[in-house]
Amino acid sequence: MQYLRKDNQQGFTLIELLIAIFGFTLIIWGLISLVSNVFFASKTQSGLLSDIDQARRLAFQITTELRSGQTGNNGSYVLDTAGNQQIIFYGNSDMDSGVERIRYFAQNGSLYKGVTEYNGTTYNTTTEKTILVQSNLANGANPVFYYYDGSYTGSSSQSPLSQPVNVTQVKFIKVAIQIYNKAGVKNTNIYTVNASATIRNLKTNLGQ
Description:
Layout lengths: L13 H54 L11 E4 L3 E6 L8 E8 L2 E7 L12 E6 L10 E4 L23 E9 L9 E9 L10
């Protein structure tokens, strides 16, 4: 018995199979890249929102503490240092019976808070407890703190006191925390959180 070969029955050649597999691989790789980019963008946006939310809470915390500033337990003036990127004042940070020396300062792209307790005689700064309060700080050389005297009217065009600032002149303080925008929003590289406060024990004509 003889079998006749049917020439019209053809399968895929090896080259065709390789081309099909290559094309399928490209499609899968593209889908994986797309999903990965979506998750990365979502994570980045979430990180930015977290930084901004933290900056808002921090700005509120700083201004609240400034408003309640008071003379140190050793008789120190309520405002010790009024620098562009560092402020030192006295207040009750932990709501206990004592007054602490509170320091906020920018360093290496982050903002820190240092608290020194009164030891009954003095504020020994070697015992200062420091914590990180804001990362991704974008201020660089730009001031974090701005200071105004009693003539401040609330105008955005009014210039702050020039450094070095005489702390006895300060009646109003602005906080400007700049955060790097890592979410890739077009034409927006930095997000700024602003807050302001009057140290109640120092105010004159500000009515706050």
